[in-house]
Queue: 2 jobs
Job 1
Amino acid sequence: MENSKNKEETKMSEVLNVEEIFGSKVFTLGKMRERLPKSVYKEVKKIIDHGGELSLATADVVAKAMKDWAIENGATHYTHWFQPLTGITAEKHDAFVTHPDEYGKMIMEFSGKELIKGEPDASSFPSGGLRATFEARGYTAWDITSPAFLKEDATGVILCIPTAFCSYKGEALDKKTPLLRSMEAVSTQALRIVRLFGNTEATKVVASVGPEQEYFLVDRDKYLKREDLIFAGRTLFGAPAPKGQELEDHYFGTIRERIGSFMKDLNIELWKLGVTAKTQHNEVAPAQHELAPIYETANIAVDHNQLVMETMKKVAGRHGMTCLLHEKPFAGVNGSGKHNNWSLGTDNGVNLLDPGDTPNENIQFLLVLACILKAVDTHADLLRQSASDVGNDHRLGANEAPPAIISVFLGEQLEDVVKQLVETGDATHSIQGGKLLTGVSTLPDLDKDATDRNRTSPFAFTGNKFEFRMVGSADSIASPNTTLNAIVAEAFCEAADILEKADDFDIAVHDLIKKYLTEHQRIIFNGNGYSEEWVEEAARRGLPNIKSMVEASETLTTEKSIKLFEKFGIFTKAELESREEVLYETYSKTINIEALTMVDMAKKQYIPAVMEYTRTLADTVLAVKSAGADATVQTTVLKSISEKLAETQAAETALEDKLAEAAGIEDPKKLAFFYKDVVHTAMDDLRTPVDELEMMVDKKVWPVPTYGDLIFEV
C-alpha cells in the first residue's frame, strides 16, 4: 500500500504545469511591471508600443531591475545577443562583476549604458566590404520590443539581450535591423489604408509570423562517423536505403519513444523561453519531424525561431542524437523547409487578411489582397531571393517543395471573386463552403471550407494569412519577412497615394482593385506547382524561374530593388551591394568546404576500404581457381568493383583540379558561378561511382553508416 502511494506521489510530482514554467526565463512585461517604478514601466511600455528612446536615467533603472532578476535566477554574465549575416546568432559574455570595494566585497553591476549599447568586434563577421578587416569597431543596440531572456547551459546562466548590430558608420551588419525598418515601413503604409476605411483607433499595423520548423534527428554516434554530416550538415555520399518514404507511413505516424522524450524536453525548454511551441509531429521522410509555434510579432518570431534551432540542437545532444537543420541532408528523400505564415493586423484587433464570410463584399480585404498580389508579382525575383541559401538549392523545385517559380494560390472562393471583378467589374457573390456529410449517425457533419489547400504553392492564402513555403529549414526567417514587409509597404503606399486624392473614394477604390487584379492576375495559380506543364505555363506568363541562389543574389542590386529599399529606408545601396557580395562568398565557401570534404572522404575512407575489399576478392578468386572450381562470379564482381574504383579515383582527381582552378578566380560573382556550374558538377561526378560501390561492397567493410543506418535506426 505504501509503495503504491509513493509511486502515485512520484507520478504526481512529474506532472508538468505549463502555465507555471512558461516564460520563467524571460524578463517579460509582467516581471517589468512588478519590478519597475510605475512611471518607468509606463515609459518602457510606451516606447515598446509606439517607438522612441529610453532616457539614460530610465535605462539605469531598467538595467538594475533586469540584473537583479537575472542574478536571482543564477546569472553571472550578460550578452548582447545578435544575428550577423552568418545566419546564426552571436554573443560575447561579460560578467556582472566589477572591481571589489576596499573591503574586498564584490559588487555586481549593470548600467543603463551597458544595457542599451554594446561594442563587439565587427571585423570578424561577413560584411561584404562594409568593414575592412582592420576596422574592428561595431555596435549593438537593444531591441526593446524583444524581451531579454536567460540561457542556461554548461557555461552557466547568461542574461541575453536581443540587439541589432551595425557598423561604426551605421550600416546594418545584421538581419534584425532591416527587419525592424521594414516593420515600421509596412505599419506606416498600412495605417494609411485602414484610415481610408474609417479606422481611426488603430495606431500601428503589426506583421505577425508563425514559422513551422522541419528537422531531422539522427543517432549521434552514427553522425560522428560521417565526416560530411559534421562539416557540411548533409550527406555528400549515400545510396538510397531499400525503403524510403514511398509507403507514406511516417507522416503523422506514431511518435517513437526516444523521439517523444526529445520532444517533451524540447517543449519544456522552449516554453521556459516564452516560445509558444504548439504542434509537433512526424514529417514525410523517415527521421524527419516538425515543430510549429503560435503567431507572434515578426521580430519576436525571428528571435524565437533562432532560439528554436539552437535549442533543438542542444536538447538532441542530451538524448544521444544530433539535429540536422540542413534543407537536404539525404538525397532521394524529402528535404526540410520552414513555412513562413505571415499576416497583418491592427493594434485594435483587425486582421487585414481576414476575408470574412462574404469576401466579395469586404472592400478593405479586396484592396489589401490586390496590393499583395501586385507586390508579389512586381517583386517575385526579390521574394525568391529572400528564400535562397546554399542548402535550399537542393530542395526548391525538386518535387517535394515549392518550385523555384513564385506564384500565389488563392483557392476557389477568392479566385472566383477575382475572376468576377476582372471580367465584369463587380463581384456579386462568393462560393460558400456548405456541409460535409459523414454518413455516420454518431459523427457530426462537418463545416466545409469554401477553399481547399494547395501544398505545391510557394505563396498560398490559407484563410487569414499567407504561407510562404519556400524558406529553407536552416535559414533565418528575417530576410523573407523583411522582403515581404517591404514589397507590400510599396504597394500600400502607391494605393494610398491614389486613393487619398480621389474625389469619390468608393469609385476610386473599386477601379483600383480591378486595375491591380487585372494587371497582376498572372501571378495567381491554383494548380499543381510540381508539374512540368506549370513550368511551361509560367514561362508563357512571363514569370521568372530563378533556379539557384547565385542567380537569385543578383536581384538585390537591380535598379528596381534599390529604389524599393531606399524609398522606405530599409537598405541603402551600399548595404544591398554588401549583402550580394556576402551571398556570393557564402556560396563559394560552402561548396568549397563540401568539395574538400568529398575529396577527404574519397581519399581516406572510400578508396582505401574498396581497395582492401578488392584484395580480399582477388584472394578469393585465386583460392577458388586453385581449388579447380568455377570463379566466374567472383571474377565478374572483382572486375566491376575495380572499374568503379578507377572511376572514383579519376573523378576525385578531376575534382581536385577544379578546386585548384577555383583558387585562381578573384571576382566573388565569377567564383560563385564557377562553383555552381563547374565544381558542383565535378562533385556529382565523384558521388555517382561511390554510391554505386556502396551497393556492391560488403556492408561490413563499408567505412561509414549508410542511409538505412542513419534514418531508420534512431
Note: The CA atoms of residues 330 and 447 lie 40 Å apart.
Job 2
Amino acid sequence: MISSIRYLVLFLTFSASYSQAVKWMSIGNLHNWYSAAGCEIEIGRTGQLTDQQDGLRWPAFYRVQDNQAAKGLWLGAKNFYDPVVSKEYEHKVVHAGPRHLDIEGETIPIELTMYGRFDHPNVLVDGDPSTNLQYLDQVDIVDADLISDRKIYNVVQTSIGVKMKRTIYSFSHPSHQNYHIQEYVFINNGCFDKDCNTKYDQTLEGFQVYLQYRYAISREGMVYDGNWLPQSAAWGHNTMNDVIGENPDSPSINDQFYEDGSIIRGLFSWHGYHSSADPPENLGGPDFGGDGHLGAAQFVGVVTLHADKGPNDKTDDIYQPSTTWFITSDDPTTSGNLQYNGTKSTNEYTNYMTVGHPERSQAEIVGTGNANQFNDPRTGSNPGGTSQGIGFGPYTLQPGDSIRIVLAEAASGLSRSMCYKVGQNWKNQVHTDELPESSSLHSHMMDNYHRPSDSHNYYKNSWVFTGADSLVEVFKKAKENFKLIESGQSLPHPPRPPSLFNVESGGDKITLDWENESESEPGFAGYNLYRLKFKPDTTLFYYDINLNQVNPIDNSIATVWSLDPGITQFEDKTAERGFDYYYFLETFDDGTNDNTRLNSSKFFTLTNKAASLKRPPGEDYNDIRIVPNPFHISSRDLQYGVSASDRLMFLNIPPVCTIRIFTERGDLVDIIEHLDGSGDEAWNSITSSRQIIVSGIYIAHFEMPDGNAIRKFAVVR
C-alpha cells in the first residue's frame, strides 16, 4: 500500500509538468524543446521516466544524443508584498523547475509562437508525410525578413509581478548550428495572473534571476537505450561542471577570451568518472562491450552574451552572472517548491540564488575522483549528481522597469567519426601516438581531470577533452552572431530548401522530385542528393582500424549525387530489392555569400520513412520465394542490414493475398495481409504476440482469390 501511494504522489507531482505546450528548435545540429512555461523541467515534455534525458540533442543527426535532464528558472525578490495572500515576505521566490511547475498560478504561459524565415518543406515518401519536422518544426508565422532561420517567442506572466519575454534563435548556417541564443527580458508589470486581474505596483528590491542546468551526457549509452554505462549516469549522477570567466579582474589559468580580449563568461559540463563503471575508464562513454565507440564525448554549456547593468543602464555588466555556485540535483531545495512558503523562499534566495562564487567549482573539487561520489560541502550529500546554478542580479526594478539577459546554450565535442576512431583504437589498443594539438584549456583539463595510467587512456582522454576547446569555439561563434544581431545585421543565409521533396518507390527504381524555387536564391549553385541505406542516421564513413583512418563508406550504403541547377528529378536505379533507403536533399551556393560554400540543413528534407523497390506481382504461383532461406542469425546483419536484421522477404507473390505462418506442428505464428498490389512483402520474424521466432522449420501459407500456395523455410538462431 505504501508503494502505491508513493507512485501516486510522483504522478501527481509530475502531472502538470507536461501539460504545457512545447516547441522544438530542430533545424540545425542542436535540437531542443522549449516550454510555454518558460523553462524545461525534469521529464516535463512527456511525463515518462524513460525520458529522463530529453532534449539538447547533439549531434542531432544520430538517435538518442540527448544531454538534458532538467532545468530550473527561479525569480526572487526581498521585502516583497504579495497582494494575492495579503502578506509581506522577507523573500518571495517563484519557480519553474527543476521539478516543480504551476502553470495556473506561478509561471503562467501567455504566448509560445514559432517564427520561420520559411516553412518546413513538405516531405513525402510514397504519398505519406515522412519527416521528423512534421512534429518537430511547427512554424506558426512565416517572416521572410527574420534574422534567424527560426525564432520562438515565449511570454510568461509570473506571480512575483514580473512578465518574462523569452526569445530563442536558431540558425541553419553550417558554422552556427551548435547553439541557440536565448534572450530574456524581465518587466516589473505588477500583474499576478494571466489577465492582470490582480495588480499591485511596487518596487522590486534585490530582484534576482536564477537558472539551473542539470545535464546528463549522453543518452546513447544509458539504461534506457544502449545500457553500457552505469544506470545513474542517466540522471547526471557523474556529470562534471566547471565555470570560466567568474572573475574578470583576476582571470584563472583556465579562463578563455574572445578575439577582442574580453573574457568569456561560461559554464560547461561533461561525462565524468563513475564508481560503477566497468571498466573504470569511462570518460567519453566508450562502448567497451561493443565496438568501443564513444557514446558520451559531448561537452555542453551556457555562455553569457549580455546582462544589463541595471534598468537604466543597458550596457553589458561583465560581473554578471553574480552567482555561479553549483547545486546538488536532488537537494530538497530543488523539489517541493512553494511560492507562499516564506521559510523555503528565504533558503532558496539566500543560500542558492545570491550566494556568489565558490572558491572552487564542482569539477575542481572532484578532480580525478568519481563525480557520482562527490558530496556538496554545504549539505554533505549528493543523491542525484550536481547541477550548474547561475544567478543574475540583484537589481532594483521600479514599476515598468525591465532588465535584459542574453545567453547561448551550446554543444560540441568530437565528431561522430572521431568517436568511432578514438573509441575503437582505445578498446583494441592499436592506436599510434597520434594526439591532438594542446591548448591552455586542454592542458588544464588533462592535468586536473585525467587519471594518469597507461598510454591508451591518455590517448582517449586527450581526444575527449578537446571537446572543451570545441565548445569554447562555439561560444565564440555565438558571440560573433550576437554582435551582428545587436547591430541590426544577420548571418548570410544558405539557400533555402525546396518547398516539396517527394520520394516514390517503384519496381525497378526509386524516383525523387522536388520544387525549384531554391534556384532563385542568391548564388545558388546546385543540389546534393544523399541516399542512406538501412536507417536515417546511417554514417557516411567507416573506420579502418588496420590503417588507423576514417574512410568514406561503401557508396552502396551511403551515396551522394551532386546535381546541377535546373535538375528537379532523379531516378535511383541502383537500389537493391528488400532494403530500406532514406534520402535528403541539400541546396548549396557558390561561396559568394560568406566566402565559403553554404548549404541548407539536412534536417529540412531528411526522410523518416523508408523507400524500397517493390516489384510487380508474380505471374505464376511457382515463382513465390522466401529470402533468406534458411535465415541464420550469425549473418543477420549481412542479409537486409542492421536496421532490418530479422527481416524475411516474400517475393513474387500475388497483388493481394493473406499470408499465414505456422510452425512445423501447425501452431499459427502470424497473419500478414498483403494489400498493396506489389509482388513483395516483408516480415520482421515476430509473432502476433510480439515474440521473436525460435529456430525451426516454418510453413508459409498463401491464400489468394484464385488459389493457395505453400512454402517452407528454416530459421537457425
Note: The chain has three domains: 2-472, 500-604, 621-716.
